[in-house]
Amino acid sequence: MAHVPTLDLVSQSDNEVRGDPHLSTLLDAFCLKNGLVVIAGSGISTSAGIPTFRTKDGLFVQLKQTYRLKCSGEDLFSADVFKFPDRAAAFLDMIRQLYGQCKEAEPTPFHLLLQSIAREGRLLRLYTQNIDGLDTRLKELSTTVPLTATNNAWPLTIQLHGSVEFMQCEKCTSVVSLSPWAHGEDDLPNCTGDCAQDRRRHDMRIQLRPAVPGRLRPRISLYNEEPYDSQAISRVIDHDTNILSPGPVIVVGTTLKVPGACQLVRNLAKKAKANGSPVIWIAPDRPSSNLKGLFTLIVLAQADTIAAKVLARTAKTAWDIHSLLDWRQNPDDLERMQILVRWPPVGGEEYAPSYAEEDAIQEGSPELLYQFWSDRGGRTEAIIQKYPSLNGRLMFHVFKIRDQIQSRYQVQWVGYSDQEMTWESAEYMHQVAPECVLAYQEKRNI
Ligand SMILES: [Zn+2]
């Protein structure tokens, strides 16, 4: 039997794994490689306090007692849950609780790691089995609901099992926010979308018996039914596997018990291995035996442990920039700039220059960036000259909040040094850069 290398960060100390080549493989995959594909499960959200409701100590056990249910946890997530009033009530109660908990929760260190990799343009795709929306609320990891391509590009995050943030009509597939129901009546609301429009037309013209409008239900894929967005998801998987060239494939925080997710990993893993890229398992427990042969490296660890290790390493080496060569508008976000970076060789391996996001460079090598703009007559002047159509105001983005006096924040801007900070009202900052306010408050609390 082929032996799969294992890095055990649960029982081994930092000292014991120091210098372990498998640790380098793992960190290289996160820090250096392009085209990262991540398949994530509930393990990346547990530290945010999101209950793992399908496990034996999860939310389900509480509900089972409250509603005196005789069914299993799987039954509660089965498509016929609505046929049984007691199960339906428990299911809907659970979704409501979950919705509230997700709204309260903050993204975990692992989410923020994915965000920073996405910002650097190195994340090819995040396939998430999570319905909590902690990933997709980060701008860099956003998605579309229903899943659609924009300008021929699929969103970076693909929600495999739907989301607790939306409801969909059973009849006309209209999608609405779940929020009003979560704060309102217990009963599932009727649709006011296309099917309700049809009813009005019927009433007026043909005098048919009025059609009954569809019922809205949480847009969460259940067992024994076709998952939401399944056709679009198949197209993305096909695109990622056959057209794009997947780099490292990372499976994190999941047992990979759902057959669809398992097949997805098999397809991507095959292509990644053909490309010479690693296929890495990250979870506190080993993969089950039916996944034998799938992974090139097994890492036993909590997701956040990996995030901490990657961030520690990034701070030291990844922004070891040789020089900054050129710049352009970000093709996906014309208001933001990207800088062409020449990287130093790593372990004797040369890397081609590549574009990186300006704020990522500012984070790692601020002085280089300020000098880069200074050499070009100043950032504001350079941008106005090169992209005159860009409204002067739109080129400014908050880099970090540095200080606070009462209801005003001291703001440092992307591409500008701390010599050019300004004071802005808290109200304005909450509006334009809530994530920066959050980051500042978190830092203050530590
Ligand atoms: Zn409808």
Automatic annotation (TrEMBL):
The keyword Metal-binding applies. Residues 396-446 form the Chromo domain. One of its GO terms (cellular component) is nucleus. Pfam families: Chromo (PF00385), SIR2 (PF02146). Belongs to the sirtuin family. Class I subfamily. Component of the NuA4 histone acetyltransferase complex. SMART domains: CHROMO. The keyword Secreted does not apply. This is Uu.00g130350.m01.CDS01. The active site is at residue 161. Zn(2+) binds at residues 169, 172, 191, 195. Keywords: Metal-binding, NAD, Transferase, Zinc. It comes from the Eukaryota. Residues 12-328 form the Deacetylase sirtuin-type domain. One of its GO terms (biological process) is regulation of DNA repair. PROSITE patterns: CHROMO_2, SIRTUIN. One of its GO terms (molecular function) is histone deacetylase activity, NAD-dependent. The lineage of its organism: Eukaryota, Fungi, Dikarya, Ascomycota, Pezizomycotina.
